[in-house]
Specification:
Length: about 290
């Protein structure tokens, strides 16, 4: 329902004031006096998922194997907020949607030692040092997670539904962005250079749900194994394992509440954290010894 200054919220609730409008144009009942929220459960919302998926695999041969996977996806779904009243108001991307997803795993035995390309006639000591090494790598590369843009003081324009501004005609919200200090154009509404506008009172902004993308994500994990044969029945495996071996810092989404000419938001557009709520691992090394028999 529209927002009108001075009109209490309950007086704009259909089950408080009545009557209830029905599909044939009529109405039912009078004032019910219901001031609580109503939950609406139905199997009537839409979820649409389209994707291109590709996989390339090389089975183990000549000392190595790999598998590469790529998914290019487009996801749209209805959100729960206001679905009962305005079905398509929250139609957009879910919070987990990453458009591009690539992963690569590689296993390779280094070509050193007896029976290998190099040092094939190595002595026992040389073979024990340089032979039977194995390298394993896992790579993940993903595009960024989506996020909503909101604006300060939205409660003066509406007291229900999503807080999203208008995107001005022809404006590019990523103009001048892409850095940690300014990921998107966060110029305050009403200021020169702003790409967002304030919706009319009692209306919702035209910016789609989760319209912008945050920083992409990539990480390389790796391990190095060394196998030693002690006797016919016993073997020893030395392992060096590294999570995020390149120590790449993956950034979180930016602060996405922009200011206005009367309410500043100095951190708007800035990124102040790392991915997964700060839980994304930085470089971590661990050593292990495994005895087989």
């Amino acid at each position: 329902e529209g927002f009108t200054a001075g009109v209490p919220r309950n007086n704009r609730r259909p089950f408080f004031t009545g009557p209830i409008r029905v599909m044939n144009g009529g109405s039912l009942g009078g004032p019910y006096g219901w001031s609580q929220d109503l939950d609406f459960f139905c199997n009537c919302a839409d979820n649409r998922y389209d994707s291109l998926q590709a996989k390339l695999t090389r089975r183990f041969a000549s000392g190595y194997s790999f598998q590469a996977n790529y998914t290019w996806q487009k996801v749209r779904q209805h959100g729960g907020d206001q679905f009962f009243y305005i079905r398509d108001l929250e139609w957009g991307r879910p919070d987990w949607d990453r458009r591009h997803n690539f992963s690569l795993t590689v296993l390779a035995e280094l070509p050193f030692g007896r029976g290998r390309r190099f040092l094939s006639d190595a002595s026992g000591l040389v073979n024990a040092i340089f032979g039977r090494w194995q390298v394993n790598t896992a790579v993940i590369v993903q595009s960024g997670l989506p996020f909503n843009v909101t604006y300060a003081g939205a409660g003066a324009d509406r007291d229900t539904g999503p807080n999203r501004p208008d995107l001005l005609s022809g404006a590019d919200p990523m103009e001048g962005g892409g850095s940690r200090e300014r990921w998107f154009n966060s110029t305050p509404i009403g200021s020169a250079g702003a790409v967002f506008g304030r919706p009319a009172r009692g209306t919702f902004g035209n910016l789609e749900r989760n319209a912008l993308d945050g920083p992409g994500y990539w990480r390389v994990d790796a391990s190095l194994f060394k196998r030693l044969m002690i006797r016919d029945r016993f073997g020893l495996e030395l392992r060096l394992e590294a999570v995020n071996v390149l120590n790449h810092v993956n950034l979180a989404n930016p602060d996405s509440e922009i200011g206005t000419t009367t309410e500043a938001r100095p951190n708007a557009g800035r990124i102040t954290g790392t991915a997964y709520g700060g839980a994304d691992p930085q470089r971590n090394l661990q050593f292990a010894v495994r005895l087989t028999f």
